[in-house]
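User: Study the fold:
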Amino acid sequence: MSIRTVPTLQDLVIQNVLCNEAWPIPNLEYLPRVLTLQLYKEALMGGHMEMVKKMVLSCPLACLPVDYLLKTRDVKALKTLLNGLDLLISQNIYPRKWKLKAIDFREVNQDSPNEWSRAPVGACSQEATSPKEREKCSQRAVKPRLKIFIDFDLDKVFQRFLGSLREWVEERKGVVRIYCQKLQIGGFYLKLSKFLRTLPLYYVRELEVNAQHWTREIMEHFCFVLIEMRNLCILHLSDLSPQVFTGRSINRWYSHRFSLQLRKVNKLRELYVNNVFFLCGALHKILL
């Protein structure tokens, strides 16, 4: 004899809401946070497009955590969310009227729902150096901005899930922006360098670089990107094989070039190095 699982009151509420998409949704602002988050999850994973659109427009949360989408890599559920966000973005509403300001794909502590708010809002003061640039920045600030928080592995953005997200963000440049606290860079660096430049690199705290088969051109380009990560705290650098370049002059060039840029990253506290040939015998000079 099988034991039947009795649905909880929360399950019954969610089931009732999702089964009647034509009905007005309940006032989400008065629902417990746990119930609200579960309702969004069930609506997204179940492909309830019309319900998601309504819920996005009336979202009572400033930041909506959707880490389960990244775990499952469910492209259909992702597109359901993006279609709902498109409706929100298209609304002719002053940005301060929006309650939903960010979508978080990271694994975050549910007890700290406002963790996302520590991210730079527009970073105009950091990015704009001349009066002309500050003027452009102030003009951009008038536009509605939606933040996407995600830890990116650039080598995986060609996969369907991350590729769909990347393309959606690029098509809405100036309205939606990706923030990466942890970033991984590998063999597809040059192909994605343009996309990398669209990210607010000052927000990156941890960087992992697998530089296998990198050329001198890639390394030189990466040095300029590195100094823009002025809040970088942790750097993993690996697999610059000595089989690629063996000349002493080239080794010295790499060591000198890298040391100049690394010294400009003032907040760097942890450096992990594995099989980086041009640092052999020179690392102590760089760290001085």
In short: Confidence is low (pLDDT under 50) at residues 110-128, 138-144.
